[in-house]
Amino acid sequence: MRVLTLNLQHAAPARTAVDAGGPAGATTLDRAAEEIAATGADVVLLQEVDRNLRRSGGLDQAATLAQRLGMAHRFAANIAGTRVGVPLPARVSTPARGYGVALLTRLPVATWHVMRLRGGGPRRRTGRPAWSPLGWTWDPTRVLLAAVLRTGAGPVSVGVTHLSVRPDVARRQLTAAAGALLTLPGPHLLGGDLNLDAAAVASSEVVADGRLAPLAAGLTFTNARPRTQLDHLLASGLVATGPAVVHHLSVSDHAGLSVDVHRS
Where are the domains of the chain? Predict the structure, then answer.
């Protein structure tokens, strides 16, 4: 089974693309579909996916990619559109408009699961007055989307998430996401943009205590000038059958990361 994780960045053109700086839309999404297909992935874990948002051409990106790739899919939002530029938390997993994660798969799905991951909430900006809206940042709720896949050797549970940009919050969310995924039938694989580098993931609670182990190493951020790994594939009961592959696509500021796995 080949698994690919990719922070799609709503299919915005990469800095190295011929249309760098241009808008996302049907053309960039079609191009992304072709490039994802070329990776040969059986399971695709996507983050920063738009659903019917103006900035990306009003497309349901997960559904469009799944159709192009001939895969089953599910989308789960953590942000439901915006109001006057302010992100609104998603109250349901698939709002009419939203932003979140998606899981696409060629394998049959037994069950789907969604779990909210509490964000960091408000935080003061240094050097800004507390009475000003510009004096605060908001760290939103995140989401874990998981599928129990049917394979010839039994069920495998796969999850995708996109964690907080605050390292302390991301570590907490990683522990919560792993704990939830590990309650599903195993083996288990958790992937996505964890907003933690390789050293931070290695020292995290779930890796340090052996619940999950990193499967794939590669510099994924930025796509144009890779200098660190923010995108990870962690597993229990699965091993990599070869080295990971970094995919520099013509969309996103992240590179994709794929690896072939089988049961340990």
Answer: 2-263
First CA to last CA distance, the chain? 13
How many whole angstroms separate alpha carbon 131 and alpha carbon 136?
Answer: 9
Q: Pick the closest to residue 26 from 5, 38, 10, 39 (CA basis).
A: 10
**Residue 21 to residue 13: CA distance in whole angstroms:** 7
CA pair distance 115, 181, nearest whole angstrom: 10
Q: What are phi and psi of 52, to 5 degrees?
A: 60, 40
Distance CA 158, CA 147 (A): 5
d(Cα 175, Cα 171) in Å, to the nearest integer? 6
Residue 181 gets the label, from left (phi > 0), alpha (psi -120 to 50) or beta, of alpha
pLDDT, averaged across the chain: 93
Give per-residue pLDDT as tens, 165-218. 999 999 999 999 999 999 999 899 999 999 999 999 999 999 999 999 999 999
The predicted structure's pLDDT at residue 131 = 63
d(CA 201, CA 205): 8
Which residues fall within 8 angstroms of residue 115, CB to CB, at 6 or more apart?
143, 144, 146, 176, 177, 180
Residue 75, φ and ψ in degrees, nearest 5: -115, 145
Fold of the domain built from segment(s) 2-263 = Deoxyribonuclease I; Chain A (3.60.10)
